[in-house]
Write a structure and sequence with these properties.
Elements (H helix, E strand, L loop, with lengths): L2 H6 L11 E6 L5 E8 L5 E6 L12 E2 L5 E7 L6 E7 L5 E4 L6 E2 L7 E2 L12 H5 L11 E5 L1 H4 L10 H15 L3 E4 L3 E2 L12 E5 L6 H13 L3 E6 L3 E2 L20 H4 E2 L4 E3 L5 H16 L5 E4 L2 H5 L21 H17 L4 E4 L21 E3 L1 H12 L10 H4 L10 E5 L11 H4 L4 H17 L3 E5 L24 H19 L13 E8 L4 E7 L6 E7 L5 E8 L4 E7 L19 E3 L1 E4 L6 H9 L1 H6 L6 E9 L3 E9 L4
Helix pairs in contact: 4-5, 7-9, 13-14
């Protein structure tokens, strides 16, 4: 079927193979590039560039029927030459626009597109990794290292590492740390460093800040060869107003809504894609397909989904548009999201599609067939906000906000969640994660270690922003590299070693990730010790005897003998202690991780009754008399609890060594 027809009807999922600039050979055997651009409102379009002295009179394009597409073949145009489209409006204005489908672009502040031959620009070496890919529903666990390429490492002169130079270092570092996925903040071309890549002007062009498209493929390939998945941040909701980009592309609103109310995101000053327009849907669906197929990535994290699904996002209700049903949902955007996720699920079943969605919109990860949006994951922003709010509270006051920890289990199974401590939590005056912890230097580090143990043992996949692993004091700065020098100091080095141990324990123990969609994988042991701010719970694998008990003491108080009920009789080994001396903890009670073993004692079940149960017995004495005092046995451990510490106990069975 005609590719232009599919494009005009929103069904061309690989429109980048038709539009843009591609190397070609004319009927006469001349080599050059074939150009095609969609500009339906234009009176005339021409190509200007290094090959014609930027003269708009030399290479005028020809309209392709009524499709709104203009095209031309230019002989002798060669790779790496610069170009733009000169678009003449019906009013006679001439606009110079970068190619929406350009594969390569100039490095900012320059804005021209660059001819690039992507046909055979890279030979992949990740066949073994790709052969091991499984449907996303079956592929567990997931521990993500989120990063910004421009500020992870920098050369001595202050310039960021290239894709190729960063690749082996990043792969080795992430693997050592115990992450099995890297999420990269947007690598699509963008003009402003301070946008961190979230305001894109070149949706099909990897940013030239770090090299060529083939160099990005080398980075992805290197990570794959080290068994590390690659997730790219993607922004299909909005784009910037820069005059060389998509805004008013052919002199009128084209990629954006024509309705002024719908067209703008007031929070960001950006323009909103017109999801009702078939060609815009083709553009965005093709862009998702492009990164998954051409760059072989394992997933997309879709930014700002709330801004897509709600017409009143960031707006006063009185200034908001409404849909045809009178509501505030953007029905066109919702339909696009569902179509996108179904397309990806059918063609790339291994692909992670994660929604950064901060509202209570229902069924974000529910199947489209059941009225859901069809994402595979949703960032759990509620859990993140409650957790950091709790951890920021002073230790004497944590009992007053006890429910911020326990409340998350009320909705933990409503979606397939990722628990994020992302870049957004260490910028804009929020402080670094370490800086949020109250108290003196020692207490800040101890509290953060305990916070990480809570994250890693709570149901949901995990995500941490770069640098969190060694606890910098200052916020993230996009214009300089991380404070790697901190690793020479004991507390920061201890945090790095702790996070490394924690990550590997997470990956190696199915009890921490195998059952995350029901109470079959989680059981509260201590949920109501508000006075002491202590929490404990069991995590279970599918084989329930594979159990890890997580104990969290959220205050600087220590306990010589804390009685902890446990789910099985027998032996429990301490496999991680955040208070261990190797992590710069206090080494309270000499609890050596790996060597300390606790044996259970039995107690009568009636001794474990809650106050509510006891009151019920008092109210129903006949029922109480029917209980056999010796019929049920519970099990407990008497153990010391270090100050501001987390402990993981793994169940090892009933047999004595």
């Amino acid at each position: 079927m005609n590719q232009a027809y599919l494009f005009n009807h929103g069904k061309n999922h690989q429109s980048y193979k038709m539009l843009g600039a591609r190397p070609d050979v004319s009927a006469d055997g001349e080599r050059g590039y074939r150009f095609a651009v969609w500009a339906p409102h234009a009176a005339q379009v021409s190509v200007v560039g290094d090959f014609n002295g930027w003269d708009p009179e030399i290479h005028s394009m020809i309209a392709y029927g009524t499709t709104g597409i203009w095209q031309i073949f230019i002989p002798n145009a060669v790779e790496y030459q610069r170009y733009k489209y000169a678009i003449r409006t019906p009013e006679g204005r001439v606009l110079l626009k970068a190619d929406p489908y350009a594969r390569h672009a100039e490095t900012r502040p320059n804005t021209a597109s660059i001819l690039y031959d992507a046909e055979d620009d890279y030979e992949w070496g990740d066949a073994d990794f790709c052969a091991r890919r499984r449907p996303v529903e079956d592929d567990r666990p997931l521990n993500i290292y989120e990063m910004h390429l421009g500020s992870w490492r920098r050369y001595a002169d202050g310039n960021p590492y290239s894709y190729r130079d960063i690749a082996p270092q990043l792969a080795s570092y992430v693997k050592q740390l115990g992450y099995n996925a890297v999420e990269i903040m947007p690598v699509m071309e963008h003009p402003l460093d301070a946008s961190w890549g979230y305001q894109i002007t070149g949706y099909f062009a990897p940013t030239s800040r770090y090299g060529k498209p083939s160099d990005l493929k080398f980075l992805i390939d290197t990570l794959h060869q080290n068994d590390i998945k690659v997730i790219l941040d993607w922004v299909p909701g909005h784009f910037p107003r820069d005059d060389f980009g998509l805004a008013n592309f052919d002199g009128q609103p084209l990629y954006e809504y024509s309705d002024a109310i719908r067209a703008e995101h007031p929070n960001w000053g950006t323009l909103v894609f017109d999801f009702a327009l078939a060609e815009v849907r083709s553009f965005l669906l093709s862009n998702a397909w492009y990164w998954l197929e051409e760059f072989n990535v394992d997933g997309l994290r879709v930014d700002a989904v709330s801004s897509m699904v709600y017409l009143n996002f960031g707006r006063e209700y009185s200034a908001s548009a409404r849909n045809v049903q009178g509501g505030y949902e953007n029905l066109e955007a919702i339909a696009f999201i569902r179509e996108m996720n179904e397309l990806v699920r059918e063609n790339f079943p291994y692909c992670i599609m994660a929604a950064e969605e901060s509202s209570t919109f229902p069924k974000v990860t529910g199947p489209v067939s059941e009225g859901g949006l069809g994402f595979t994951h949703k960032w759990n922003m509620g859990w993140m906000n409650d957790t950091l709010s709790y951890m920021t509270s002073d230790y004497y006051a944590r009992g007053q906000v006890h429910d911020k920890i326990t409340f998350s289990m009320m909705y933990s199974f409503s979606e397939k969640f990722i628990l994020p401590f992302s870049h957004d939590e260490v910028v804009h005056g929020k402080k670094s994660l370490l800086g949020r912890m109250p108290g003196d230097y020692w207490r800040q580090f101890a509290s953060l270690r305990t916070c990480y143990m809570y994250q890693m043992s709570f149901p949901g996949d995990k995500l941490n922003f770069m640098g969190n692993e060694f606890a910098p004091f200052i916020e993230w700065r996009y214009y300089e590299e991380l404070e790697w020098f901190l690793l020479q100091y004991p507390n920061h080095k201890g945090m790095f070693e702790f996070v490394t141990a924690l990550n590997h324990i997470y990956l190696e123990n199915p009890a921490l990730w195998e059952v995350e969609d029901s109470w079959e994988g989680f059981e509260w042991i201590v949920a109501d010790d508000r006075e002491n701010s202590i929490f404990a719970y069991a995590r279970y694998a599918k084989e329930r005897s594979q159990t890890i008990v997580s104990v969290l003491n959220m205050t600087p108080a220590s306990y010589k003998n804390y009685r902890l009920n446990v789910p099985h009789p027998g032996r429990y080994r301490l496999i991680l202690n955040s208070d261990d001396a190797r992590y710069q903890g206090s080494a309270y009670a000499d609890l050596e991780q790996g060597d300390t073993v606790f044996w259970t004692s039995a107690e009568k079940e009636r001794e474990r009754l809650s106050l509510e149960d006891k009151m019920r017995d008092l109210a129903s004495p006949l029922e109480g008399e029917q209980d056999n005092a010796d019929s049920g046995l519970g099990y407990y451990i008497d153990m010391p609890l270090p100050p501001l510490a987390g402990l993981y106990l793994v169940y090892e069975g009933e047999e004595k060594n």
